What does this fold into?
Amino acid sequence: MYDPYDDDFPRIVRSTGVAPFWRPLAILGMIGLVGVGFIAFVLAIALINRPSSVSPPMVAQPAPAWGGVPLGPNGLAGGAGDDEDADEDEKQGNLPFPIVRQVDPATFQIPGEPPPVPAPGDTPRHRFLQLADVVWKGNANDYSVSMISVSPDGRFMAVEDGQGLKAGLVGNPASMELVQDEERPMPPGGMQGGMGGPGVGPMRGPVKRSWRVAGAPSWSNNGLMVFAGSDGTMREYNINRRELRVLRCIGDAPGVDPNDPRALVYVRSQPVAKTEAPGRPGVSDPTEVVRGDIDGREATRVLVRSSNRNWTRVAVSPDGKRLALIANQPHEKGLYGGRNRVYMMDLAGGAPTPITPPTMQIGDIAWRADAEGLIYSRGHEVLPADYWKEENPWVYQSLDLFHYDLGTKKETRLSRGGGFQCAGVDSQAVIYFRCDVNQPGNHFAQLMKVELKTAEKFATGEPESVLRDLKAWTGVIDQTMREAGLEGNAGKTKHTPLMMAKLSEAYSRAYLDYFKTAAPANLRELDRQGWELSSLSVSGKDRRRFALVRAAMEGEYLRMKHGAEWRLSEGPPAASDKNLDAISNDNPFAYVLDVAEAGHGRVGDDDDEDDERPRYFGPLTEQVRQAAGRKLILTNDPTAGKTAAEALADSDLEKGVSLLKQRKNADDLLKGLVKKYPKNRVLALHVAKLLLDNQRRDAARGLLMEEWEPSILDVQKHNLLGIAWLDDAPRTAIEEFQKALGCNPYYGAALLNLSQAFTAVHEDRFAEQCLRRYVRHFPGDANAADARRRLADLHARRNGNP
It folds into this structure.
């Protein structure tokens, strides 16, 4: 670097006619002017390329139909540059349209049905949650929260999310800090913001690093948290001092020994060769449970030798005498993998003894402060009846909280309905548990607490229901078929409406006999029963009987409560003989429901008797919503269903179409047709589209502005109403298109129409944002080319091109 006071400097940069005293100042001034000029040049370029928020007046017109896509300021119009702009639009916010659903279709009321969302306290799960308090709530829609744990004294908590492991005071989000350690210096260049590529530039100093946690941490009462990192090492973190250190012992699932602060009980693996063959994967490394010094100064002692169990979690009792363990047992095969159990053993020695039945999933385990009981969360081999009373939108769906009393050797299920993950027990016998909550448009990870004695009192008042396993359900189906006179082969029985009615009546009696409660009596209960039946591993030979009874029971409900009609053939055609194209459900007068369609899991036509996988289930509630007031046709043959639907068509619709083709007024005829079917929303939208396609905007507005009950068709209604206002009142049209996108942010037609409305009021910047979002989310859609051409046209006009 040059020194301005060095005698050599003027020889290199000489400014003639200036006194030597002022030379340095003159040179600095020249440098400053050059710098200012460079900055001005950069700003000018940026301003030229900056999208203008005030565009010259532009009349609304169709997108130009010329070939080729011109270059925009960020590359090809509608290409990668516009995709980046769409990302930037969403980051900055202030978008002229919603990007999150503002209404939840699941909350729409169906006429004749109870409210879609149960009232508080309406189910056992809700009643349990009313006894608990919220301690901590995560950020909205942060699905990255994978672990929550609370210290035994109830003062500290740890949370792992997308950033890594955080620790702080319970219920105090401001105290949560990211647990990080210093690593070796970063290499030159690379990912951390360095200039140039790999190997370019100097080595940089140590950086902070966070990592994933393998399992839940273990706590001591003095604010120390011990955990295993995903990098294979164990660490100890002092929350009070914010200090972290790496332990010398290598393993997983550490458990702190309260009697010896220098000792850990943890899981250690033994490497084995991976022998694999087609369809025969290699086994995982065997694990053993050991007790060792945290500094590695003393030899470890093996507590449980390696076997065919994979130990995944250990917890030492507060008195240091017992050890609780969780093991996955690959040799106990289930439908989806090995089973899990909780074990107990003396820390001084002995063999682990199982204290829980095998199950697919077990959460964390925590000791009572008096060391006389365990709290844990686990799943069920057979889900209890209260689980099927819920919508089940939670993380850890099948897990409930359990208490195992060492004195009585009895296990008690404390919670009901599923969706609970144990997070710890404090010295006052307060249970902390994770219980996520779903709200319309939002999901929250949530930590709650409840006293053990309160939970036990609740469990006493909510007795366990009758076991509803495959054996019990088979008994219900057998009794139903027997009472309906169909003990033979259900697949060869002629299907008639009378037979379906007999099956439905017999099913209600058999259900009450076996389960001691009434059969489902509304769509919500029927859908939950459908999920329960679909979860059963029914063999192929029984699947047809199950599906036939289910079709009869659900179809009869739709017939009696929602006016459905049976249109049955001799029997369900084989899958290869079906004409699935026959059911398109675009008929504005009828909605065909194929009760024999395998996708709905009702009268299955799958003859594979060895396949015991659960069947897919399509909710009845969704089918009724899709029908939207049209006549429901229940069939086992798509062709027969299509014929029945066509027979329901009203001739006035065809007359109206004919008049419109002749450019005659059909407004009164078509509006009268809609009034004949006041609940048929599909017909109303069908007629409105016909009117708009024939420039009958006033008549279309008259139809669409009538008050409706909230419906899944509201998105199409607002979109069509926006089109009806587009030429006459574009500002009103903008409001309607925005309402449509509030119903469904990914409704592409409304995005394109909203862009056109913004163009009509000369708000080109907003119009471009609509088109960029469309091109980003629907790059291969049929209208994507239209969106790109419109976007290119706006770019050209913004840049002053004709």
About this structure: The chain has 20 helices and 33 strands. The first helix runs from residue 9 to 12.
